[in-house]
């Protein structure tokens, strides 16, 4: 029989477990962004998170589990943050929306995701999870983009217009990998925002 | 004194040396595309090219020299092939030009270049060469794109339009890394060709 006392004991334990999990996920993304797939092991991540190797393996039995969960967790956090930027949904300022969408593809999360994708292209045990993750994150990003741009996908070509915009954002992220591309990126975003204004109506 | 006999001896030797160099460069790109940076050593490439390790090191003293030279060599070959597709320069069929530009970012060369970029983002001894190489290849691709699209860069926004198109092409290449994205890519290219037709005039 469960008493109130038992429950009170259990809740903080669940909280601690959730906090440990979150610390591991954040450490995994930081590790992947800084050291790449080869330099990112469960041991290195556990150390960075201040968690024992055993506790890390309790949460994530394999290295693949840890890193796909990490990229997914941070992608979800970013989606939530992006929606929070435009609480009214479709925004009047399309350039601001496009700029915020492009920002999803710069910084440590994109860098971590890129390392994971590239590693998955050569490592069979990583490939299925990462392919599935990429598809899921891609669909979610597309949904947010359509909503914030106020794009009417029932009109011919609108779906492909938004897809191409997100492909451009991904390419801009790649262009930022080795050098700081901020200035050029701002000019490209300004021009493509003008083009989209004319296209999406 | 150089006699005609000496010269005749020397030319085939130079030819052999050039052929060896080319075999090494092609093997390096194939290796990088298939196994990634970690799995691509000078020994593996030399074996694949059917060249001794010593001969490989005579041509390319370091692993970094071999791989940056390899990506540059193939990028040049691709630029030449792209110009040859449209021997008249600016083409009437902009969709065909855009489609050919996007094709530069799919296939083994892009995959090899991507592995090299991602490795360079974590490896200090690779970073300067790759950064410089990426800038050079990027400028050359931009030049070809402007020429084949018949884009007038003196008009405001045209430069950024072409840059954004090449960023989109790079992003489409990345989307093709884990899954065959051919169908979606063709629809995005068709739609953006329509949009650019209106924008470039």
From TrEMBL, chains A, B:
Gene3D superfamilies: Tetracycline Repressor, domain 2. InterPro entries: Homeodomain-like_sf (IPR009057), HTH-type_TetR-like_transc_reg (IPR050109), HTH_TetR (IPR001647). It holds the Pfam family TetR_N. Keywords: DNA-binding. Residues 18-78 form the HTH tetR-type domain. PROSITE patterns: HTH_TETR_2 (PS50977). Residues 41-60 bind DNA. This is TetR family transcriptional regulator.
């Amino acid at each position: 029989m469960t008493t109130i006392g038992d429950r009170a004991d259990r809740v903080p334990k669940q909280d601690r477990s959730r906090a440990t999990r979150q610390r591991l996920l954040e450490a995994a993304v930081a590790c992947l962004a800084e050291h790449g797939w080869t330099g990112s092991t469960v041991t290195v991540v556990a150390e960075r998170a201040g968690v024992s190797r055993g506790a890390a393996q309790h949460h994530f039995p394999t290295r693949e589990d840890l890193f796909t969960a990490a990229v997914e967790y941070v992608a979800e956090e970013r989606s939530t943050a992006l929606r929070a930027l435009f609480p009214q949904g479709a925004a009047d300022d399309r350039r601001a929306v496009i700029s915020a969408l492009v920002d999803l593809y710069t910084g440590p999360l994109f860098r971590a995701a890129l390392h994971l994708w590239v590693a998955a292209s050569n490592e069979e045990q990583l490939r299925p999870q990462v392919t599935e993750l990429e598809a899921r994150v891609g669909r979610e990003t597309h949904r947010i983009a359509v909503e914030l741009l106020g794009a009417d996908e029932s009109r011919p070509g609108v779906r492909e217009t938004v897809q191409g915009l997100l492909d451009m954002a991904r390419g801009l992220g790649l262009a930022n990998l080795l050098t700081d591309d901020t200035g050029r990126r701002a000019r490209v975003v300004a021009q493509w925002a003008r083009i989209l204004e004319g296209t999406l109506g």
